[in-house]
Design a protein that fits this description.
Blueprint lengths: L10 H4 L7 E2 L2 E3 L5 E3 L3 E2 L10 H16 L1 H12 L7 H9 L2
Antiparallel strand pairs: 1-4, 2-3
Helix pairs in contact: 2-3
Amino acid sequence: MMDRMVVQVDDELAEAFPEKALSRVEITARDGTVYRSSTAQAAGDFDRPLSPEEKRNKFLELTAPQLGDAKSEALLEMIQHLEHVDNIRELSAILSSR
């Protein structure tokens, strides 16, 4: 699929950088139909930061499929209090066990 993708810089959107990191997606289907997104700025960019709750939810959404809910929660808790972790092996134990 990568060989069918083309990434281009849109001069109009690039003008807003670095104040805004804007993007737009255009997909051309095999039948020639073109689908275009609206111009968007990703949540989590420097000028559109995620709230603490959004960060937490994103972390759990990305880690739970690999670690499970309980281990993802434990990992997040450990990361949030990393200064209290006596040995980094505690962290790696969560990551290596399934």
